[in-house]
Amino acid sequence: MTDTVIPSGKRLPAAEATGLVLRRVGMASFIGTFVEWFDYASYGFLATVIAVVFFPGTDARSALMATYAVFALSFIVRPIGGVIWGHFGDRIGRQKTLSLSIFIMSASTFVIALLPTYQSVGLWAAGLLLATRLVQGFAASGEYAGAASFLAEYAPDGKRGILTCLVPAGEAAGLLAASLFVAILHGLLSVEQMQSWGWRLPFLMALPLGFIGIYIRRKLDETPHFKMLEQAHHVPQTPVVELLTKHRRELVIAFGGTLLNAVGFYLVLSYMPTYLATELGISETAAFVGSTISLAVYLGSIFLMGALSDKLGRKKVLMVCSVLFAVLTVPMFALLSGVVFTGMNSAGFLVILGVWSLFGALLSMNGGTLPTFLCELFPTRVRFSGFALSFNSANALFGGTAPLIATWLIGATGSKLAPAWFLVAAALVTFAAIAISTAGRAGSALKDE
Asked: Of 257-261, 339-343, 352-356, which gets the smallest average pLDDT?
């Protein structure tokens, strides 16, 4: 951990966190992102059910697109939330900000479980769903960036990659838990039961999980890097203004560098079960089993990629990942579209698992490395703001909309490979952005000025 340089030229010694503190910080960061992505993934995995419950009376594709439109619209508030949460995170500290964001996130998700359906209140049901999703999206916009900044500012230089990847690990674990939970629901409940009350169950779990996260976070101190800024009376008054006037280049790099993560994450780990079920005719149970295995590969690979980034640097790992996605995505989608699925014991299902697992491993190269790269790109004074604004803007424009865009592209072109080309374009943009960056090299330290 580097020393903090203040305007007078004095240097404040960096504080080193003990192993116990690091474990507590890691748990706090993990549980927050776990809660966030369990909630978000539940909506994505239940998209076909929600489409029937909230948008009946239309054809299946239109209802599904309406469901994904609500999913996408909730991302509109993310850049706004990124500015607001970033301001408070850089002004009053990471710990207080993260405790509030997880509370709002959990409460709004819990409310989704209590919403009336179209059968009860008509179009008001869709309006209420959108309103709760907007609140949920606003709260979520502070979670990922804040948790990554919080953990990175505690981690020592040589282990920052492997420790900070606890944040995407929490993300993956939340997705995995949601996938398992929804798969069990589909296996145990009838279609009528799922549409009547089964879809509510994952959202009911948000409140108790959120209280666990709040309890853990309130027991932690502020990060050493932020404390040193406070001691030096060097906390920025308007971090977003400083970010937009002094760090525009870093913002552009961060936005482009996040694009592959945004598109890939939602296409591979959230939209893919729906794609396989609706476009390729695979059973929902088989699709969710495949999703679970892919997520397990993703989660198991994340720490390996974090450790690799500590040795090679974030920049090399992210650039190699971008190249692999650009080269392999279309052939892998083509392989999927040619599969003949005859059951979960068929050769076709094994091909699906193999392709999906490879996608999960590739995505872990990006997901396990990107949070640390973004933390190293911005100085402590504006780290939360820079991370939150760039990450949430990329996810708002291209991540949350990815399932909607993919569904529309298939309908417009008639090609089941259309989502693959969308992902290739994102990979090329990310490669270009990372290539021009000077951050993320092996041995990089956090910038305090």
From this structure: 339-343
